[in-house]
Design brief:
This protein is of the alpha/beta class. The chain contains 12 helices and 13 strands.
Amino acid sequence: MKCISIDLDGTLLTSRDEITEGSIRALEELTEKGYQLILNTGRAHADVVKLEAVQKLDVPIFCVNGSVLYSESGEILYEATLSISTYKKIFSVLQKLDVGILVYTNYGGCPSTLPPLHHKSKEELNTLFHEYNYDDILKYDNLKIYKLIALVHQEDVERIEEVIKALAGIDDVTMASSFPNNLEITSHEAHKGKALFRYQEIMNLSFDEIYAFGDGGNDLAQFEVATKSVAMGNAPLHIQQKADLITKTNDEDGFAYAVRHLLKLISTEEELEIIV
């Protein structure tokens, strides 16, 4: 069986959080040909399933950079969490650095998940982070912490390196960026590439080929295990340099273009017309 592992933001989704008609047709044809499609994203499950375009796809969803694996029916197959003691260490460091902090839990995002913040102003973000009472998080019963995100303003992206260095002494965590102005911290067991192997074991499957599509630092983990990795044209240069192939941007049907023309996993329209 062949697997297609696809990131969402900046990859399958356009800048308007939509899936193009071309990409929808490509997904349908891949399904008809028997490929295993998987959405492999940094988003929380609630932020994935609210997307109208995704609601039409009957596929497994790997969320929070491989922290939580969901089956096609929405059943949780696997969870990787941060211990409360590790969370406290990370939070203490981030708080001292005075960066925005998002905490992904089984109760949702505290004070939010990332997608709703994309269009907020600098002032709105500062207010959100400074007014939120993070002490309330630890009051939840049976709390599970999947991820923390350190967030800086676009003009301060160089501060992410400062955050990475400050967290270097904390064991058993994985760090990656989905956007240049953030750092996502998860359990060392949370990994987009490991998730693909873990899913095969859970479902008793064997992928003889894995095609991975992405645009961010958190996609390098799936590039590492892929037979072929495809970076989007909108991906930063250092991500493109790690990929086997580079396609068009997410706003230019980049996913569909790669599937049809670069990888030739399905026929082009021209070939279909000849066959007909």
